[in-house]
What we know:
With 190 residues, chain A is α/β, with parallel strands linked by helices. Chain A has one domain: Rossmann fold, CATH 3.40.50.2020. Chain A has five helices and eight strands; from the N terminus they run H-E-H-E-H-E-E-H-E-E-E-H-E. Chain A has a five-stranded parallel sheet, with helices on both faces. A three-stranded antiparallel sheet of chain A has the order 1-8-7. In chain A, strand 2 (43-47), helix 3 and strand 3 (73-75) form a beta-alpha-beta unit. The longest helix of chain A has 18 residues, at 19-36. The mean pLDDT of chain A is 92. Chain B is of the alpha/beta class and 304 residues long. Chain B has two domains: 7-131 and 284-299, Rossmann fold (3-Layer(aba) Sandwich); 133-279, 3-Layer(aba) Sandwich (Rossmann fold), CATH 3.40.50.1370. Chain B is 37% helix and 15% strand. Chain B has helices spanning 12-25, 54-65, 86-96, 110-117, 133-147, 165-176, 205-208, 233-240, 244-248, 270-273, 280-299, and strands at 43-48, 69-74, 100-105, 121-127, 154-158, 180-184, 200-202, 214-217, 255-257. The mean pLDDT of chain B is 92. Chains A and B meet through helix 4 of A and helix 1 and helix 11 of B.
Amino acid sequence: MNFPMTHAQNQLARAVLEGPDIHRALTRIAHEILERTRGASDVVLLGIPTRGATLAHRLAERVAQFEGVQVPVGSIDITMYRDDLRLGPARPLGKTDVPAGGIDGRTVVLVDDVLFSGRTVRAALDALGDIGRPKAVQLATLVDRGHRELPIRADYVGKNLPTAKSEKVKVLLSEIDGRDAVELLKGADR
Amino acid sequence: MKHLISAGDLSRDEALLILDTAEELARVSERSIKKLPTLRGRTVVNLFFEDSTRTRISFEAAAKRLSADVINFSAKGSSVSKGESLKDTALTLEAMGADAVVIRHGASGAPHRLANWVRGSVLNAGDGTHEHPTQALLDAFSMRQRLGRLEGLKVAIVGDILHSRVARSNVLLLSTLGAEVTLVAPPTLLPVSVERWPCQVSYDLDAVLPKADVVMMLRVQLERMNAAYFPSAREYSRRYGLDRDRFARLHDDAIVMHPGPMNRGMEISAEVADSPRSTIVEQVGNGVTVRMAALYLLIGGENQ
Lengths: 190, 304
């Protein structure tokens, strides 16, 4: 989840995770995925664009590094499944890229950068249902900031980050933003 | 973007957004469940005053793949044949709560009039000899898919330009997207205003062909012709038809397009139409995805 940021907001940003913290968190999640899925042999990693997709690729790299398993990795755009489409102008679509083997009968690990209301994950579950029928679906997120509005929880969490609802969490990744960081922005503009 | 009436209304960014959206939506057509829930509860009315096979079916398929409710209306067998005016028909649709009205009409400008009478979005599916913007979008989409770019592409549009809404929409859209368009036709089949269009004009197909990346053949619209525009069909075919010999003079990567319906043997020979470098069949499939993109971007967001 990313938000447009003005210069004034930028000055209020506080880094809660730096590059090495993100690195360690992803390493741990990759190990946890291997442990929980007993070697990740039937796992498909699907990231939610934009930054979730990048994180999914990083996790796949680590899993390959640790146990030599090439986990299929892709992305799933949820824009067309959102429940808030009518609250704003039509949004541009992200990339959906389902690995060639599909998801039928496999364990899908959804990857997102920030878990907040849970509505994105709800939409992703609907989108998955239209692509195939996975054996199980798990959720990995770099930051869980709380304030759930739906009965959804993550299986793998990089960092639990207590936040006020008015605050904003911004995840920066070097592939997209040039550096790795998680920043907490005070909701001063509200 | 509220309506899609003219390809000339689209900015470069808007046109690219439609094409990029269509590219993502094309994957939906490859899935086993070819449906998205995006337009659930929205109503799309297909209002067709002129005959059409592929455009009407294409819009219907597009709306249904986005889960919209579709009401099809054709002038034959409706109150229009009893003399109901376009405005009264529009008000009836308005009362049914149409979120989008797709209109094809024999009179140029009918969609523009309609846009003032209904609250929903109006999509022009062809008005008289004026415009057919979604055809231009799907043509641009097909070109980009085959050739990988639009910027700097040399496109020859050949045939009955005078009666062609497809040609006008294509010229406007392709010039916005940076392609270079040359219209090729006998002088009698060019509109008088053509020198003000953002394109070049030639009367000599053989001179244009070797340089073209895309050759778009247009149907000779005999049903709109109330005078003699050329001496005979044979002579037209000999000078402006795309036959095997002319096809051989195209460079190796060039593609052949036709918006359909074709008159095989008149403007295009059967051999050329069925060649692997012809995009005629994939244009139909691309029509659905491009129209899904247009419907999504027009009525997928908040109610205006």
